[in-house]
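[job 4417] fold queue: 2 targets
>>> target A
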Amino acid sequence: MPSGLEIALSKAKHAERRGDVEEARRLLSDLLSRYPNNRRAAEGLARIDPGNRVEDGSSLQAGVAAVSVLHAQGAYAQMARQAEALIARFPQVAALHGLLGAAYLGLDDAILAEKAFRTALAAHPHDAANQSNLGIALRRQGRLADAEHCYAEAIAIRPDHAEAHFNLANLVGLQGRDDEAIAGYERALALRPDYGDALYNLGNIHRERKDWGEACNLYRRTLAIRPDHYDALNNLGYALLELGERDAAIDAFTRATAVEPDTGRAHVNLANALSLGGVLDQAHAAFGRALHLTPDDVHLRAQSLFLEAHLCDWSARDSFAALPVQPMRGSDPVPPFIALPFEDDPARLLARARIVAQAADPGRVAPLAPVEPGEKIRLGYFSADFHDHATLHLLSGLLRAHDRDRFEIHAFSFGADDGQGARERILPHFDGFHDIRGLSDAQAIALARSQQLDIAVDLKGHTRDARLALFAGRLAPVQIGYLGYPGSIGGDCLDYIIADAVVIPHDEERHYSEQVIRLPGQSQPPTDRHVIGECADDRTSHGLPAEGFVFCSFNQNWKISPREFAIWMRLLTQVEGSVLWLIRSNPWAEANLRAQALAHGVDPARLIFAEKRSPADHLARHRHADLFLDSFIVNAHTTASDALWAGLPVLTLPGRQFAARVGASLLTAIGLPDLIATSEADYARRALDLARSPDTLAALKARLAANRKDAPLFDTATYARKIEAAYAAAHQRRLDGLEPAPITVD
């Protein structure tokens, strides 16, 4: 079957033979615009154009061909010079003006390009290619309405002009008219099934709409045409990650690094995918290659240091302090969550958060007007973690305890269900469960607004998979940050943050962009329904010594810093036969921690690593430990409340930021303030005293067991009433027309 090019050349030849020079010229000019290096089109145009009547008409043919070759090579400056020289000799040849316009587009001079295309169109107004190209020049000048008119004219002249449909789709897509853009790309593809750019751009729209499967399909079709399409490879990798296909994503990003090995971003994407896939050593190497290429990228350096924290590689840890809050041009800012284990400075964390929030929330959206008060306050929880995740483990008790006579509870989920049953178990506690994972931000906002929420609660903040843009678009008259991220969002999109008097002291409120709601007791929800297993095992089945003191820290490894680890090692040297019981996270962290122990003069075998267990069995094994040692800069959160629920005392040292004060908040709520140290020396002294005084430790455990029954920490019903009072107070202020202000719940 002949190609479209061959068919067009044949039509031009037939038009020339029957004397329809204008039609032949139109067809050949269009072909030359689409295929500037096509020799047969250039020769045909030179043959029929009046310009070839001059004595040296053969030079026109050669000149057009040469200019077309320069276009194919991207040599736009030379192309413009040669086209201008030819125009000086053959000013009546419209195709030359079209080629000159193409050269100016390549040079990003939209004004001169416009002039050239208008000159070409003055001679041949029905040239669809030049009409479409004029639209490009106008679009680059920001004259969108004029550009749209040109594209429409081109399509009216030639409905089968695929490039005009493509250009129009680009324009309307730029204006947020996605449905029109999709239709335009599909028309272009119907005319040219191998139109790689149309496939790619259409894939991007589906990606933005969270239609990951279709986006993958379109990127793969793009790559079938252009296997070296770097952006398609990267975007395919992103979409595959969203689908949970990590191995395929790693393959896509690996191919991208092969296409552009000197591009740092390609290696960063590969590093992130490898990290998510648990291949942390290879991820670290990929970050190293990226840093070699872009050594001044502060976001990249922060990512690399955060990965090293997961590996417990502290060799470059101190360099984080030198990373500026305001990134250099060309570098993304440091994500606030990544900064948590390195900077115990709420002012600096707020500054970082403001920069990141600005990207998602560039300008304050006017608050929604409150709806007419109903019988119930309509409350929406937004999260990607409605599955087997620490956030849901903490929230589940509150969801069960909510007063459904006063509150209508909705969940808006933008994370996948892991199939472990956690989501299924909480569904009865919602009046509506809305899966918005596949919706664009605009669609999700529209859906949330259709539910006429009074309050929207963000459970993600600046953590992974957050969708801050939803809150920037205003989901409800009142918007509150809660639980998922221990810090300020740094933007105007959240009105309040749920806290208590310990995690945000009054003199630290200035470091939060939100108004502070303080709950009595603790701000973290209770875990009083978590089942403790009936394991009949002994210490030795866990690799622990039958006798000896067991220090424990079941925190995630990335929260451990050299400061507390040095204290832990001194404790092991001071308490004969003692061991440190840690969570097994990854083999590299284990190896590095053992090496650090040896450097402190401690036998690495005294570090025992616990395997992952079911929640019930994990809680049960706490009975084999004697004292939980909290990390400093980022405290144990769920892990600490689990330990206390299981009857294991937790020793903490509060810092300044929210994440560094959660341990103190939990211990205050359980009535054990004597486990809150005042300094590193005090922390070390208290731990040593408890290890050397079995009676004191036994009395402490007895107090903990007694307080579990009555203290606020595990009183879910009372906690629910208190946070509901906070929600009601914030809602009432909005109904009264008052601005958000600090709220203290008694």
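>>> target B
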Amino acid sequence: MKKLFVILVGVLTGLTPSFSQTPEGEFAIIADSHSINVAGQEINQYADALRAEGLNAVVIEDRWQHPDSIRLFLKRMYQSGKGFEGTVFIGDIPVPMIRDAQHLTSAFKMDQERYPWHRSSVPSDRFYEDFDLEFTYLKADTNGLYFYYSLNPGSPQVLTPDIYSGRIRIPGDDEGVKLKAYLKKVVEAHRNPDLIDEVLFFAGHGYNSESMTARIDEKAALLQQFPQLNRQDNGLEYIDYTFDEHIKNRLLSAMTIGQTDIALLHHHGSTDAQLAGSEQAANGVQQNIESIKFYLRSKVRGAKDTTEAKNKYIEWLGVPDAWFHGANEKEQSEKDSAWFADMDIISADVQKYDIKTRFIMFDACFNGSFHTDEFISGAYVFGGGRTVAAQANTVNSLQDKYPDEMVGLLSYGMRVGEWNRMVCYLESHIIGDPSFRFASSDPKLDADKMLKASGNNGKLLKLASYPHPDVQAWALWHLYENGYPGISDLLAGKYFSSPYATTRVSAMKLLAKLRDDNFVKVTGAALNDSYELARRFATIYCQESGDPRLAPALIRAVTDPNISKRVNYQAQDALSYFDPGLLKAGLDKRFEGVDTANFLGVIYRQTAANIERKAKSCIETVATITGKDVTEKERIFDIRSLRNLTYHPAIRPLCDYVLTAPGEKIETALVEALGWFSHSYDRQYIIETCNKIIAGTEKFSETVRSEALRTVKRLE
């Protein structure tokens, strides 16, 4: 092992005394040799600024160039007992590419056998943060940056990070000009911390964004999380993608004019673009015609037989031939392409604006792909504006999650890295400085005081009643982490008594980890919660649980004439995961004595038809997996579908089938798929089946038994 290079740090004076100035924790700045050579002075100044805030920052030159060595160093600092809390990676620090851990992501499910390693692995610095996880090193790419690891079957199968981290990586900055400018910006932000008095949230096109109820409730919840914004002119601003045909300029302008502190951006994304806008619903006859023309040109453009394609749409839609004019003409094609491309935000667009927003959350896929040469979140953070940090995802991300969870803690001076440590997925990362924080807006409480109480259950119980929803949620989270003996009843009581929407959601999420009777009780009640996100989460938990006790509440929700758009989508989907006979009986009881000659009859008949239709999916899936005249490819395809379609009535026949030893490939795939039934009311049957496989040394291979162990660890 090569010798470490450590830069000793000093203390700056005259900084804003918003927090305690006595060093009470440790922080590691790990930089590659190039970054130290070109920006050593600025890195030292950054370390000085942190020390002045109470973090004993040390700068470490990465001469290991291997994740295992870096992780060991960080683990030793954490175990030293000196309050080591986080790290930042500057430059080309090795990127762990994690395999066999897709269940730790919010949405990533890619066939590791079918797709290349760099696409089917998750770039994740959670490798450096969670010291309980156990990995097996597999290989490194020739680029010297990607290192592949498999999450061991016997490892814990949940994320509980011990520290936080962030990435400062600026590709193409050979002279260090951007790095030095960025670090100067960071130091200035630490010297003069802002109070949060202006927050922007944006709804881009996509399924959640098109639920107005979801957005109305999100605004109401954010005003509970940031109560100071109720007193501010334009304290909480909202932009919807429907405001303009090309929304990006309005959005970027809003982050430029004024002093927006936080921007919460909900949209689709790619590595190098924010997919913020979409074609608008037309108003008037002429707009509708132009919209149809654009659609028709896009459909026939590039077709093998243009005439055949045109005739198909003419017959289908009854449109004239003239509406296809220009489809394959260069000028019109370029015009159409430019118009559609202008829906997205790319790095060149960001560079045109002096973005003032200090912290940005990208609730989107791939915007945080720091391992690539261009990632859109980096354009904001490392550009010329005031943005210091962002939270973004390295791979695809689920939109049906709680992206705003505990974000109000940032008003108490919580470091963005610490916040990201708690609301974590394998793919979610801080881009930029993870130690960045705002000034506390509460003279009675700040993050430093809260963190000191994190191990004291008595103090946490008091904070669980503090008049702020996210402080309460934070206290409940730590009580859960501490193994507080009365946590289940406390969470249930908090759900039923709290006036705060976000506290109720946090309590329900923690109960979902316990998966006990209180979880079922609260989930059933939450289907009728006043907060849209609570109702949506409850329907999702119905899907994931399949507990028969939830069937009546689900039927009441799905037949509510006033059910919101996104909740209805999830509730209708949830019908797939229950015994159809139980649902039909509940439906008949629900409409007993009700006049079904009106709209209520439409709801009854549609729901009954959906129950019957969705039941067939489960039956057909089981038949394909267990049938005789089925190819291995067909079996594998339907087995992998179970990672998204947790059919609880299928658990027992599939478990019985896998014990018949249908072959290593089928066994491994099926056991892995059963590991996704983590909230199922019948998961104990899966555990018992897997334990039989683990014990069946003569009947099952080591590969299958290892996968069975992984599934047991996930379900227990």
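[job 4417] complete. Note on B: The chain has a mean pLDDT of 92.
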